[in-house]
Structures are given as C-alpha cells and as structure tokens.
Amino acid sequence: MTNTDRSIIASFFISVDGVVDAPQQWHFPYATDDVARVVSHATEGVDALLMGRRTFEEWKAFWPTQRGYPLADFINGTHKYVASDTLADPGWGPSSVLSGDVAARVAALKRTEGGTIAVNGSGTLTRHLLQAGLVDALHLLVHPIVVGTGKHLFEAGAAPVGLSLQSQETFDSGVTYQIYTPATTTRQ
C-alpha cells in the first residue's frame, strides 16, 4: 500500500452456521459489554461506510431517527458509499452511489486520502470485494447459535479466498471475536 491507500475492514455479527442475515433477531442475548466494546472500537479511524443497496435501505429506514448516542451520531454523520446500479438518489446523506464496475470504483476509492472504510452488514458486497482482493481485514463476532436460515456470508460456488487468523478473543457469553487478513497463499 502507498501512504494514501485506505484500508477496508468488513465486520459482521455472524452465527456459527455462517448466517449474517437479520442479526436483530438473534444477536441481543449476546450483546454483552465485551461485544459493545468491540463495536465501539470499530468506529475508530473510520471516515466512510461502504454498503450494498439493501443494507443502505435498511439502515436508512432506522438510523436517521436515532439521535443522541455515539453510534447513531457516527452512522448518521459519516459519509456512506452505496454500491448500486438501481439507486439514483440515496436520500440520506452524506452519501454517494457507486455504480457500474463496483470493484474498480472501490479500488479507486481506496486510493483516495482518508481514514478506514468500514463495511457492515453487506454480505454480497463483502464476498465480491474479497474475491477482488479489496478487503484488508475481516472482523467476525461469531455468536454461539445456529440460526438455520438466512443469508450466509459465504455462499457455495465462490472461488476460495485464503485468510490468515490475526487474533481471536473469547467472551464469557461464548461469542468469539476473530480478525482475519488475506493470506498470501490459499490452502485447498
């Protein structure tokens, strides 16, 4: 990386069976002080949020009405980049739409000056960016629950992407916090 390259960190609440969909339905029994600490630290150095259209629309329906606490103020005030070929006017600012070749647009965004770019709750986009080699770190809060149905972070049919475990922490709730970076080689 040159000194102007920005990092992309993708973070997820994820079940043991890989579901990242609708964490509001299964995450809260595990929302301990340890998890809150991780979420709070996840905003440090971040000056942009990158998300897919569906996640953007879900967040747009919720976050603008939330005010007065640090996470809500951070999300509402941080620039949001939305990967979409169908969204013309985001209607929730500050925001910009990235259309067309998303990997090329995100690669160009990474070359601009600024802080860390965070991806949260956008599994399809994260898979695409991982395949393109654009994700610098993957932060997973793995919950000790099998959800059974919903969208999975990793879907069948994708090419292997090697990851290297950088750290792991286990909380009393059974949640593990795992940080991965791209591996230099992929084991098969």
TrEMBL record:
Bacterial bifunctional deaminase-reductase C-terminal domain span: 7-176
Gene Ontology terms, MF aspect: 5-amino-6-(5-phosphoribosylamino)uracil reductase activity
BP GO terms, sorted: riboflavin biosynthetic process
Lineage: superkingdom: Bacteria
A Pfam match: RibD_C
Coiled coil (residue ranges): none
SUPFAM superfamilies named among the record's database cross-references: Dihydrofolate reductase-like (SSF53597)
Name under which the protein is recorded: Deaminase reductase
Organism, as annotated: Dactylosporangium siamense
